[in-house]
Structure formats: structure tokens, C-alpha cells
Amino acid sequence: MIAQGGRPPSDTPRERGAPRPPCPPARPPYPPALTRDLSRGPSLRVRLRRDRSLIIMTLPALVLLVVFGYAPMIGLIMAFQQYNVYNGMLYSPWVAFANFQQLFGDPGFWHAFLNTLLLFSVQLLLFFPVPIALAVLFDSVLSRRLKALVQSVATLPHFFSWVLVITLFEQFLGGAGVIPQFLRQHGVANPIDLMTDGTTFKFLVAAQLIWKEAGWNTIVFMAALTAISPSLYEAAAVDGAGWWRRTRHITLPGLKGITILLLILNLGYALTFGFEQMLIQRGAVGPGAAEVLTTFSYIFGIQQGDYSYGAAAGLFLGMTSLILILAANKVAHLFGEDGLYRR
């Protein structure tokens, strides 16, 4: 029988406004042990199997790092001993922090420490902007052949040893060099010998570093420039921006990340830089101008045979360099940059 309105009556009629029957209960969840958080990515076993070939490729570098980087750290035990070559580290007497007390009470150590900071500050101020300027200059050169030629010539001194670099500077700036001889021929009676003058030594070593390493360091900045989209330069040129405006508002901001990273890494070498460079020239200008912490540690620890004293100086260098890196990285994070790693 068809009810009024054309709808067949339901088998279980329900009055209007009556509550609906409850839904069946949901399926119980799986136990936590059977579920895996997909946001964590694949497991360690899967990643090791996936990246097996890359891990094998890095094994030689890891072996070199362990053998020449971490294994020698065992020798830092000598900083807390009165080390004797015949007794070895196992039987040498322990003196706790006596070597550090002697180190911090040595005026020669503090002179080397302050001189290291001075030389590093001058080198950082004079050297660090040069690779950035060269990279921007190379990037603005339109001819690929000319760019490759200039970059190759600027990179070549990186492969010269410090002995050769200092010899070349001696031939040009030394007392019998080309420039002093030229000045004598033109009326200058006693031209200054820059290779033996302690007052200008800080600028001399900065010039040597610029000539040797500036071209090589442009490689990193040139690689960073390739990551900047050419469309930004094209849009800026359409808007009427000249070369300087494009450099200021596009190129330099694009280099900010890698610049901060390299600056942090350079601060880590603030107390350990220039060992070979300073050691070669120490006899010419004197220890008052060329003594740094690395040469101080070498002379006392190796030449004079006081291994415990040299190890104490070396441990101080390592700990201070680590603190400088962490502090610089923290400052980079405060300014919103990634630094060595992301927060």
C-alpha cells in the first residue's frame, strides 16, 4: 500500500525528531609497536643499504681523518704530565695543571697570543674582501676565454709553497731586490727593507697571503654566484638598475650565506694560522714581530724538547679555536643566518 505523498512506508517507521541510532564503534587502532612514524623517513638499515656506494667512497677520507686528525689527540695527555721520552705516556709522572700554570705565567706566551690576534686581524680585514671582489669582477667579464685565463692566472699561486712565495717577495722587496735597486738608481739613498722591517711585517704577511690564496678562494664565491637566478639581473636591468645597483642588491645578498660560513671557519683558525709562513720569516724580522702561538708551541715543544709544555700550548689553541667557532656560529644564528648548521 502506497502512503499519501507517493513514498512507500518504511519497515521500521521513525517519528520526526527522534534520535538516530548510534554509529558502530570505530575500529580499534593498531598497537604502537606495529605503527611507524612515517615523518622520520626510512630506517637506518634502509638508508645504509641505499647509500652503500657513497659510504664506501667516503671510507678513505674517514680513515685519513681518524689517523691524522683524531689519533694524534692521544698525545694531549702529555699536557697533564711531566713527559719523559724514555718513560713514555704510560709511566711519565702526572702534574695535573702545572704546565698550564707555567704557560699562563709566561710573558712570552702572552706576547705570542696578542701578536697572533694582531696578525690575524690585519689579515682578516685586508684579505677576506679580496676574493669576494675578484669573484664579482670575474662574474662581470663577458668573455669566457678571458675569464678562464684571468682566473687560472690568479689561482696558480695557491700551488706554490710558502718557501717559494717568500723567496719571490725577497727578490722583489728585499734589500738587494728589484724595487730597492730601482729606488737607489733614482736617488733614494736607503730604501726600506720590507722583508726585515718588523713594523710593516703585519702588512707584508697580509700581502703574501693575498697574492697566494685570493685567487683560489674565489672558486667558492664563483660557485655561489651561479646559484643566483639570471632573471633577477634581467628584471633589474629592465627597471633601469645599473651595474652597481645590481651588484649591491642582487649579487652581494646572494653571497651573504657563504660569506658568513667562511668567516666562521676563518675564525676557527684565528690562533693556528700561518705556521710555515711565520716560521720561515721569524729569523729575518725577529720573534718580536713574527712569533705566533703555533711557532711558540713548536719551538718549546719540538726544538727545546719540552713536550708537555708544547702540548699544553697546543691544547689551549684547540680549545680556544673551538670556542671561537661556536661563538661566531651563535652570533650568525642571532642574525638569522644558518652558520655552520641550522638551528
Describe this structure as you would to a colleague.
The chain is mainly α. The chain is flat, with a radius of gyration of 33 Å. α5 (107-127) crosses α10 (201-225) and α13 (256-268) packs antiparallel against α17. The chain has one domain: MetI-like (MetI-like fold, Orthogonal Bundle). Helix content is 63%, strand content 0%. It is built from 17 helices and no strands.
Question: How are the elements arranged and paired?
Answer:
Layout: H1 44-50, H2 52-70, H3 88-91, H4 98-104, H5 107-127, H6 129-140, H7 144-155, H8 162-173, H9 178-185, H10 201-225, H11 230-238, H12 243-254, H13 256-268, H14 275-285, H15 287-290, H16 293-303, H17 307-334
Helix pairs in contact: 4-17, 5-10, 6-10, 7-10, 13-17, 16-17
- The number of distinct helices, counting runs of at least 4 residues, comes to 17
Q: How is the biggest beta sheet arranged?
A: none
Based on the structure given, which CATH architecture is correct?
Orthogonal Bundle
| Amino- and carboxy-terminal Cα gap | 75 Å
Q: Name the structural class.
A: mainly alpha
N-to-C order of helices and strands: HHHHHHHHHHHHHHHHH
Q: Which percent bin holds the helix content?
A: 55-70%
Might you state the CATH topology name? MetI-like fold
* Number of domains as seen in the coordinates: 1
Q: C-alpha Rg, in Å?
A: 33 Å
CATH class descriptor: Mainly Alpha
β-sheet strand percentage: under 5%
* Low-confidence parts: none
| Mean residue pLDDT | 84
Give the CATH H-level superfamily: MetI-like
Overall morphology = flat
Query: Total number of β-strand segments?
Result: 0
